[in-house]
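Now read this:
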Amino acid sequence: MKRQPRGPNQDETTGRSRNSLPRDTGNERGEGTARAHLKFLDVGEENLLHAKTLEILRDIGVLIRSPRVLRMLENSGAVVDRNRATARIPETMVAEARAVTRRLLREHRAPPIEPDIRREGDAVIAELEQRSRA
């Protein structure tokens, strides 16, 4: 039997996409539950992702379908191409937006959420309750 070529995101042993969620074996009716496996980025990966994102925003830009938003971005320092409806956003604009966002998040922070985690049989139940500000 001829072996099918594998794509870059396919697992060599299973042939499944690496992006698919694994499923448990399920119950007797074949119903399973999707399980997500999380892997957090290390600092080097975060920095690379940030640098590449800035590069794309600066050199390629983003498609903006709203003429009003294009005008706003242009007035704020973005390079706008109206024929292509794109805005190329310089690093300084991104830095300013991040700073404003951090400040707004600090000023309008929601009260902390206190999880109530308990076991019921084989299930783990997590309920979230918001604590009021003191």
About this structure: The chain is about 30% helix and 20% strand. The chain has a mean pLDDT of 79. The beta strands are 62-63, 79-81, 86-88, 113-120, 123-130. The first strand starts at residue 62 and ends at 63.
